[in-house]
Write a structure and sequence with these properties.
There is one protein chain. By secondary structure, this protein is an alpha/beta fold. It has two domains: 15-286, Rossmann fold; 287-321, no CATH class. It has twelve helices and seven strands. A five-stranded parallel beta sheet has the order 5-4-3-6-7, with helices on both faces. β3 (53-56), α2 (61-73) and β4 form a beta-alpha-beta unit. α1 crosses α2, α7 (170-183) crosses α11 (261-281) and α8 packs across α11 (261-281). It is globular and about 65 Å long. It starts with 14 loop residues before the first strand and ends in a 9-residue tail after the last helix. The relative contact order is 0.13. The structure holds iron/sulfur cluster and zinc ion (ZN) (2 copies). One zinc ion is lined by residues 290, 292-293, 295, 303-304, 306-307.
């Protein structure tokens, strides 16, 4: 027997949402995602209609969903996309860039394609082999994360965007919160909250409109919309921090046993940060600037992480910020 959609009562249900106990048809599922995204944008004033927003897209399914939904709630003429090519052999991002370029073109959204090679002079593979040739064992993901954040902020800042939008989903956000709770890292907990102040005038505020959408929902939605999934994954994936993998597996078990747990954890930590930590955020003050390149850096540091990484492999490059 066909099960009807619990929202419209007409079309056939295609998606079972365990966290709400409802089954939805494709159209109502899309409307549900759009509503939840819109509420989160509104609640935290992530961006306003007049603001220029830069979507940082990697090309994966979450990128697709972010772009597909945000263009429904924001003027494409005030949207830009930046995508960063790392330079990893066998991890060819040309297909990802091609679909992003197609969507950008058809909606009149500005597209900026950046690369490690063009920005830092070397691709990720070359940075890693220099690292290894010096007997170091820095995780490729460290170079990748630090450089990618620098490039995205640089584009946003120099091109006059008001916000950077990233495609982090609910699963990513809860994992990050739990990791920062386990580390007792108050500053990072504050920075993970959508109302955290921007700690430097050189940072463009980053917001995450998909933060209340489950990862399985982005996968189902992308599939329904005919998004072609990338088949190869980055060969450096095994270097990803192990704490995140442990936390992720634990959280999945909790969610399986009690559907809706991830949402409840996110909301509980949001409230805790709002009540206990955000009031002290105004006392944090402006971040210091790196004495080498001038980029904002952590309160306890004189130089930034990127300058330290480059200096250790014999590249004392002062990259723009
Ligand atoms: Fe970058 Fe690591 Fe992700 Fe590869 S797995 S894209 S190196 S962060
Ligand atoms: Zn329906
Ligand atoms: Zn620096």
């Amino acid at each position: 027997m066909i099960r009807r959609c619990d929202a419209c009562g007409e079309a056939e249900a295609r998606v079972a949402q365990r966290h709400t106990g409802r089954a939805l048809c494709s159209r109502c599922f899309r409307e549900d995602l759009l509503r939840r995204l819109g509420e989160e944008v509104e609640r935290y004033r992530m961006f306003s209609p007049s603001e220029r927003v830069l979507l940082a897209l990697s090309g994966g399914k979450d990128s697709f969903v972010l772009l597909d939904l945000v263009k429904e709630v924001h003027d494409p003429g005030r949207m830009g996309i930046v995508t960063v090519i790392e330079g990893v052999e066998g991890y060819n991002r040309a297909d990802d860039v091609a679909w992003i370029a197609d969507v950008a073109r058809s909606y009149g959204i500005d597209l900026h394609v950046a690369s490690f090679k063009e920005f830092a002079g070397l691709g990720l593979d070359e940075l890693v082999s220099l690292d290894r040739s010096r007997g170091l064992k820095t995780s490729p993901c460290t170079y990748c994360g630090v450089l990618r954040r620098r490039i995205i902020n640089h584009y946003a800042r120099t091109l006059g965007y008001d916000r950077v939008l990233t495609a982090h989903n609910l699963d990513d956000e809860v994992q990050t919160y739990v990791m920062n709770l386990l580390r007792g890292d108050r500053v990072r907990l504050i920075q993970g909250h959508p109302l955290s102040p921007t700690l430097s005038r050189y940072f463009v505020k980053r917001v995450k409109p998909l933060r209340k959408i489950y990862e399985w929902e982005t996968a189902v939605y992308a599939f329904m919309r005919g998004f072609k999934f990338q088949e190869t994954e980055c060969p450096y994936i095994r270097f990803r921090p192990t704490l995140r993998a442990v936390v992720r597996d634990y959280l999945y078990e909790v969610e399986r046993a009690r559907p809706g747990s991830l949402l409840r954890i996110l909301e509980a930590v949001d409230r805790y940060v709002e009540r206990e930590l955000l009031p002290e955020a105004s006392r944090l003050g402006e971040l210091p600037q790196c004495s080498v390149c001038g980029s904002p850096t952590a309160y306890s540091r004189r130089t930034c992480v990127l300058c330290d990484l480059l200096q250790k492999i014999g590249l004392p490059a002062r990259l723009p910020f």
